[in-house]
Structures are given as structure tokens and as C-alpha cells.
Amino acid sequence: MRMFRKATGLFCLVNSRGWKPPFIAPLRSPVLDSPFPTRGFAVMLTEDLQQRSARTIMNTYARLPISLVRGKGCKVYDAEDREYLDFVAGIAVNALGHGHPDLVTAIERQARHLLHTSNLYYSEPQVLFAERLVAHSFADKVFFCNSGAEANEAAIKLARKYSFDKYGPDRHEIITMNNSFHGRTLATLTATGQAKVQQGFAPLPQGFKYADFNDVASIERQMDQRTAAVMLEPIQGEGGVVVAEGAFLEQLHALCRDRDVLLIFDEVQTGVGRTGTLFAYEQYNVRPDIMTLAKGLGGGLPIGACLATDDVAQAFGPGSHASTFGGNPLACAGALATLNALLDDRLLERSRAAGAYLHKGLQTLQNRFSVVTAVRGLGLLQGMELSIDGQSIVQDCLARRMLINCTMGNVLRFVPPLIVTNEEIDRLLDVLSGVLTKRLESLPHS
Ligand SMILES: Cc1ncc(COP(=O)(O)O)c(C=O)c1O
After folding, report:
1. Same domain, 277 and 391
2. Which of 181, 189, 325 to mutate to test ligand 1, by most ligand atoms within 8 A of the CB atom?
3. In a domain, 116, yes or no
4. Do 357 and 334 belong to one domain?
5. Contact call for residues 184 and 194 (beta carbons, < 8 A)
6. Fewer CB near the terminus (10 Å): N or C of the chain?
7. Is 9 a domain residue?
8. Helix, strand and coil in the chain, % to nearest 5
9. Which residue's alpha carbon is nearest to atom 4 within ligand 1?
């Protein structure tokens, strides 16, 4: 047996038959003696991880230089055991915070019984979860998948199939919004109205048109006999936290009804309590025909869903759509525990109250700092637009052990767990105030 070093820096063994078992070099970092869930696991220090990940993981993410290993409530801890307050929550995912006992118990219990079955058979967690989702939404039927992009793929297929069955193959176009975000698969990046997301991936699927958000006349101009659906987010999260106006959605809803065009709400980011109601559409006088969910749906487990009215859902039959992992018992057991906690522990009220408190605090910062040009959001999906680069503010906050995020280059986004306290929000506002004060001192004419 011979050992050689690959270009990646990892070592490989080759025996006489040419078999190459992977051989990972022993960890250089110490095993941390921690009383927390990582105890007994080897914890690599961040620098190790950075180097090893650069060798083996595709370079698709611009990561910040920390590695998170455990969390409790709204706090997370890195490999060096530093504590951070988490206003990112895995990008609006950890709705119940980290380590919520109900979610942990549900996952442990289900993992002991059965992890996966496929959709060849019936599954109780899937049915129970679907029943609760349907009971608390406009929808009658659910299709389960694993991510937001997949939920939107299902929605796009369902809208096309519904239109195909009713009007024939020519009516298949979907109008989406400029500055929207719907995912990274080929269909959903085409639905996404941002050139930078599509750049380099041509040829793109056909059948998408773009209009302006909050401008119903712009959508009407794009509508014709080929239009099957309009798809949009009630709040453009990745697009800079831009909230849909009530009148816009009401007029759009009426226009869609008038033309028998389906209305699809992408609530991947806004759903599951994020905006203070279980779904954002509840705060508007409209109901979509199709709604997509993911992110907070599993409280941290990967699960997505496409919900629809009975009339629309009947366009799918066996073989129309499928997913091996979709509605997996583990994901559904965790998602059901998350939804139960949200509904039973009055977390929607908390999300509303905390969101209002955060919004007011951010507005106070806007009054104090001229670089803050706008504060927007609903519930615990809040954005603060700056006249300066936002990513450097994210880094300054990180240095002060505060995790926040930035979209569109200059909009700071705050999407903490829905259990966030006013004291934790005060801490965020203090950190932002300190960071912005320091930044203004270093700006000319400030
Ligand atoms: C509104 C919206 N739709 C879809 C997606 C894609 O979700 P995923 O990353 O789970 O595929 C996102 C992700 O940010 C999103 O914000």
C-alpha cells in the first residue's frame, strides 16, 4: 500500500487493486471540553475549517470567518467558544431559536422510530403536518419537498399544468417581479428578476416575464392570452426587504381573478410567523391560489411545501411531480413540532410585538444617523437601508459578536428567531449605534 498527497492536500492510500480509501489527516485542533452538545466530538478550529473547506467544497458562498458549533435560544457559539447574538437565524430559518426542547424531542423520538420511507407508502407525520398546515391556511392540499427553490418549482409546474388542462399549451407564461428572488434551480433563477442571478446560465427556460413590484399597471402591461400566473413575494426579502403595498396586492388579486390568472405567493421567507401572522397574506385582503413555504417551516430541518386550493391542486395526478425525500417523516415530525410551538406558545404575538419594538428602535437609529435612509419590514423581517456599503457593517457587528445580514449590498436585514426578547433587541440596537457612530467618525464631513 502506498500513500500519496492529492492536489487537494488530502492524503490518499492506494492498494495493489487500485482501491483508494479516503484518508483525512488527523485534526490539528483540540477537542474542546465543553458541557454542551458538541462534547465528545472533535471540534475543528475555524482556521482549520477554512483551509480544509477551500480544498474540498465548491466555492459558491462568501462566508464570514467563523464556524458555529452550538446554540441555545437566540445565542450561538463558535468553535473558539465565543458567544454571538443571532439576528440571522440561519437566514430566517430557526423560528424557535436554537435547541428548542419541543423540536429536539420530536426529532429524537422520530429518529428512534423511522427516519425515511419514501412516498411509496403512507406516513403519519406527513399527514398530521399537512392537516395542521391546511387547517391554518387558505389551502386545501399540500405537496412536500425539501427547499424553497423546490417549492417554487412545484408551484411553477402546478400553475402550468392547471393552465394546460384548462386552456391548452399556449397559456403557460408566468409573470414575476423585478428584484424578486425565487431560488437557484434553472426555473427558479429564471423566475428571479435579477440579472446577476441568471448571468452565465443561459439558455434559460422559456415562459417568464418580468414586471415591477408594487406597480399593478406594469403587471397588466405584461399580461396577455399566454399568461398562466403571477408569482411574487409579499415582502421581497433578498431584494432589499421591500414590503408589498395593500392596495397593490388587492388590485393584483382582482386583476388575476378577472383574467382567471393564478396568483402565486412565494412565502418561503415571509411564512411561518416571520411577519407576525402565520402567513404574510393574512395581513392583506387577499388569498393566493398557490403558496410556497420553506425556511422556517422545519425550524431548522430542511423541508419545503407548495400549498394550493383544491381546484388548482387537482391538476397534479400520480406521476405529475415527486420528491424522494419530500415530506420525510423526520422533517415532518420536526415541522409539526415547530408549527405546534408557534401556534400554541403564542409566538405569533411575540413576533408581532418584538417586530414592532425592533422597527421602532431602527427608526430611532434612522433619526440619529444620516446614513440610514429607510427602515422597512413587517414583524421580524426588518430591513435598514444605508447610503453606505452594508457588508462592512455586517463585519463590524460580527466583531462585536452580533450576527446580522445584508441584502442588495446596502440593506441590513434582521430576521432573528421569533422568541427574541426586547433585551436582545436592545443589545442589537446598542451594537448598531456603536458601529454606525464609529463609521461616521471615519467618514469625511461627518
Ligand atoms: C422568497 C424566497 N424564495 C425562495 C428561496 C429559495 O429557497 P432555498 O434556498 O431554500 O432554495 C428563498 C431563499 O432565500 C427566498 O427568500
Report:
1. no
2. 181
3. yes
4. no
5. no
6. N
7. yes
8. 40, 20, 40
9. 182
| The pLDDT value given to residue 9 | 39
Q: Which pLDDT score is estimated for 35? A: 46
Residues 200-217: pLDDT tens digits?
Answer: 999 999 999 999 999 999
- Of all protein residues, the one whose alpha carbon is nearest to atom 16 of ligand 1 is 269
Residues of the chain with pLDDT under 50: 1-40, 446
Q: Residue 138 catalytic?
A: no
Where do we find the cell 387558505? 138
Q: How far apart, in whole angstroms, are the C-alpha atoms of residue 340 and residue 238?
A: 28
149 alpha carbon – ligand 1 mean position (Å): 6
CB distance 278 to ligand 1 below 6 Å:
no
Tell me: the pLDDT tens digits for 301-326?
999 999 999 999 999 999 999 999 99
13 Cα to the center of ligand 1, angstroms: 41
Is 360 one of the annotated active-site residues of the chain? Answer: no
Between the CA of 183 and the centroid of ligand 1 the distance, in Å, is: 5
Here the cell at position 83 is 458567544
Q: Which of 75, 295, 316, 414 is catalytic?
A: 295
Domain membership of residue 36 as a residue range = 2-63
Given ligand 1 and candidates 144, 295, 408, which is best to mutate, with the most ligand atoms within 8 Å of its CB?
Answer: 295
Given 302, 324, 344, the domain boundary residue is: 344
Of 39, 63, 87, which one is at a domain's C-terminal end? 63
Other beta carbons within 10 Å of 70:
18
- List, in order, residues 6 or more apart from 77 with CB less than 8 Å away: 36, 68, 69, 70, 71, 83, 84
What is the rounded average pLDDT for all residues in the chain? 92
For 250-264, write each residue's pLDDT tens digit. Answer: 999 999 999 999 999
Q: Give the whole-angstrom CA distance, residue 441 versus residue 393.
A: 14
What the block records as the C-alpha cell of 206 is 422559456
User: Rounded to the nearest whole angstrom, what is the distance from the C-alpha of residue 288 to the centroid of ligand 1?
Assistant: 18
For ligand 1, is residue 280 a contact (CB within 6 Å)?
Answer: no
433, 366 Cβ separation under 8 angstroms: no
CA of residue 150 to ligand 1 center, whole Å: 9
The span from the CA of 113 to the CA of 154, in Å, is 29
Atom of ligand 1 nearest to the CA of 185: 11
Question: What whole-number distance in Å separates Cα of residue 406 and Cα of residue 394?
Answer: 7
C-alpha cell at 383: 430591513
Rounded CA separation 420/427 (Å): 11
